[in-house]
Amino acid sequence: MGGHCGPRGPSHPSSLDGTARRKELSALMNRPVSLARSVALVLALTILMAACGSDGGGSDETVEPITVTDGDTVTIVSKGVAFDVAEIEAGVGDSITFVHDHQDGNLPHNIRINELDVQTDVVTGPTTQTLDVTFDEAGSYTFVCIVHPQMTGTIFVE
């Protein structure tokens, strides 16, 4: 079998000598890429980047605070051992109704506002509970699930 340079044939880069291998690799690198391959690559990278950033923890995503005024109701959802609200802004003297929308089936959750020493009951979901609060003083108020202390948020009162 004359002309056989190895198990992969004469044009495979690993079966060529150094100079021929460099020329073959250079030709491969300079070969035009089809539009379909380019689109597929961009689509694959986009999906990969979206999947990496959607785990809900560690994302650099900025979420605007919810602004409430006297008499408003704000719903806080607990699901996946997380609250869907991180920051709430209210004014001094505002009375706010908090609705705890507990969507985790078998996990116990509640909402406690530490500085006011008020909280909903610890319950398993799905269920909803309400908590009526009046903010008499300016400051930062932390709300937390007492069962899962990593579930927190802050109410800023000015």
| Outline type | elongated
The CATH homology group name of the domain at 66-157: Cupredoxins -  blue copper proteins
- The helix/strand class is alpha/beta
Uncertain segments are: 1-6, 48-60
Terminal residue distance = 88 Å
Please trace the helix and strand order, writing H or E for each element.
Answer: HHEEEEEEEEEEE
Beta content? 25-35%
Quaternary structure: single chain
Mean pLDDT: 79
- Gyration radius (Cα, Å) is 29 Å
**CATH topology of the domain at 66-157, which one?**
Immunoglobulin-like
Number of helices: 2
Q: Count the beta strands.
A: 11
Overall CATH architecture of the domain at 66-157: Sandwich
CATH C-level class of the domain at 66-157: Mainly Beta
Helix content estimate: 10-25%
Explained architecture:
This protein has a domain at 66-157: Immunoglobulin-like (Sandwich), CATH 2.60.40.420. The protein has two helices and eleven strands, in the order ααβββββββββββ. The longest helix is centred in the first third of the chain and has 18 residues, at 35-52. The strands form three sheets. Strands 1-3-11-10-6-7 form a six-stranded mixed sheet, with no helix packed on it. Strands 2-4-9 form a three-stranded mixed sheet, with no helix packed on it. Strands 5-8 form a two-stranded antiparallel sheet. It is of the alpha/beta class and 158 residues long. It is elongated, with a radius of gyration of 29 Å. The chain has helices at 18-29, 35-52, and strands spanning 66-67, 73-78, 87-90, 95-102, 108-109, 112-113, 118-119, 123-124, 127-134, 139-144, 152-157. The termini are far apart.
